[in-house]
Amino acid sequence: MKITWQMVLDFYIIFILVLLILKFVLHNKRILSMFMFYLGILVLTAIAKLLNLEVSDTFFKIFPMGFFIFMVVVAAPDIRLTLESLWKETVKSGVVQMSSEKTKNEIIKAAMALSKESIGGLITIEKHNTLDQYSQRAIQLNSDVSRELLINIFTPNTPLHDGAVIIRGDKIVCAGAYFILSSNENFDKTTGSRHRAALGISEITDSLTVVVSEETGSISIAINGVMTKMKDENALNEYLSLFMK
Prior knowledge:
- There is one protein chain.
- Helices cover 53% and strands 15% of the residues.
- The protein is of the alpha+beta class and 245 residues long.
- It has 2 domains: 5-88, no CATH class; 101-243, YojJ-like (1 (3-Layer(aba) Sandwich).
- Helix 2 packs antiparallel against helix 3 (54-74) and helix 5 packs parallel to helix 7.
- The longest helix is centred in the first third of the chain and has 22 residues, at 5-26.
- The chain is elongated.
- Belongs to the adenylate cyclase family. DacA/CdaA subfamily.
């Protein structure tokens, strides 16, 4: 068989398309689950056709398209979230400069102080995925991380207490940043917007967010789409130490 330039171009287009689909699907666990279920239906359709199962074959000819439409409707918020992430997300070049031990301790002290007074707080620590798309729309600070500054930012009725603080290395890049809220249906419906924002940013970037509840004073960590409640200061220190390695 003679290989023509049209065949090479055709293969290249399909290859790129498959890569884009995989990147999109693997970026969101919920969409991945739906996609795997859809692939399973397609496999069953092929088996029904191969074995001449007339009833099953007729059903599976109709079901995939109906399920695809259902999937698009149900997963619309996840699709929007994933598309925004893929469009805006970039990876920082070079070696990632993680926060120092001093910065880590300042974050812990601030979180514990906020918890003691039941003051809400949202502190996001950047890693590989840049958070510029959020910091650019917030209040720029570029200040050294300190317990006093973090507490002052989140003190109620102050100009910067709403939204999140974004930390890059040993600097507070900004305050008052707003993230897309998670649409995770398994999340407690009574949970406030701070926790949903923390979970939302952890679902689309590799950042870690420390969130303090103003209702209970509890401290939680959101990372990789999972929210974990900290039982004490040692647990918080352990999570931050592992993340900042």
